[in-house]
Amino acid sequence: xxxxxxxxxxxxxxxxxxxxxxxxxxxxxxxxxxxxxxxxxxxxxxxxxxxxxxxxxxxxxxxxxxxxxxxxxxxxxxxxxxxxxxxxxxxxxxxxxxxxxxxxxxxxxxxxxxxxxxxxxxxxxxxxxxxxxxxxxxxxxxxxxxxxxxxxxxxxxxxxxxxxxxxxxxxxxxxxxxxxxxxxxxxxxxxxxxxxxxxxxxxxxxxxxxxxxxxxxxxxxxxxxxxxxxxxxxxxxxxxxxxxxxxxxxxxxxxxxxxxxxxxxxxxxxxxxxxxxxxxxxxxxxxxxxxxxxxxxxxxxxxxxxxxxxxxxxxxxxxxxxxxxxxxxxxxxxxxxxxxxxxxxxxxxxxxxxxxxxxxxxxxxxxxxxxxxxxxxxxxxxxxxxxxxxxxxxxxxxxxxxxxxxxxxxxxxxxxxxxxxxxxxxxxxxxxxxxxxxxxxx
Length: 442
What we know:
Layout: E1 3-7, E2 14-22, H1 26-34, E3 44-49, E4 56-65, E5 76-83, H2 85-96, E6 101-103, H3 108-115, H4 121-132, H5 136-146, H6 149-171, H7 180-203, H8 208-214, E7 216-221, H9 228-236, E8 254-260, E9 263-269, H10 279-294, E10 297-303, E11 323-328, E12 344-345, H11 354-369, H12 380-398, H13 404-422, H14 428-436
Parallel strand pairs: 1-6, 7-9, 7-10, 10-11, 11-12
Antiparallel strand pairs: 1-2, 2-5, 3-4, 4-5, 8-9
């Protein structure tokens, strides 16, 4: 297998940059660049030289991780050099000039770790999520997954299914003996029922793990000129949206990402909902309604001193999303009233009432995502595999226990579906998609 290299630290000027090397010729490469191979897992200061002419490119730390005790499971090394552009270009150019080396593809280090049994697919995905994590809650979830929380759960279920399936298939040799097939299938039923219940409970998580990974979507909606864009800017603490006294200023959806108490929140400012006259306005309102249908929460904003143009959020048929009502512009006078008794009174201009809004928003996020520290479904492919496994277990439980061959096939199908999640069986078609999302050098 070809040896690979890549810059594993961030691009741009830095105090220290890390260059990774992995593959069977890693030791030879170290000898040519650093003069020798250091003691395993001990940093050694060395002159990094150009193999072509012996010129010193930099002085840095060299680390050596012989197989199989490395991230990739192969011989591996790291060069910790100064992070200036000229240094990096010189070292990377020297590596590219060696015929035994090539630049790594995105995610190739992690893919080699998977191929060598160092990672399963869920841990690899957790590692990618850890790199992309923007909030504390995302970091905790990704770290649990990278440390094998999902693998342990799914492989445990798979092991129980394999054991039950093996018992059924072994009894197929005695299918001619009266009563044996039915008794074996019935003996496996409590195990299968418990697994089906556990998977169903795992699936019934309201997609909290996926929402935490992708972001809790909050749509700011309401009639025109209610102060929706001003509210977005106030929550984002910057001028993300254009604010004007002219109604209908917002035509398209504007998104802003927030870190709310460690949770990722995507705020979306939308066009005001009203009887539109022009084609552009109608398209903006259509996009607003689409976002509301997809949202995890709607912030319905109205002017505290004006009657609702549409009668309020209750009149938006078909939306049926969790909603927090807001009465904005209370800074314009004490006579301004609340459009409904459960509305939170705010002023996007002065900030009054925003603390109550943020508290209510955080409660809504926590209620949807949950505070569980256990393993959580984080991707659609996990959910699809679990649903397939649960369907196969349902077939087992509802099928005839006498048809032992069919019940054994049900268990094999369920075990295979779980195995595809962790990468134990038949996953070639999804490997490219998973590892292509990694950055180069990981």
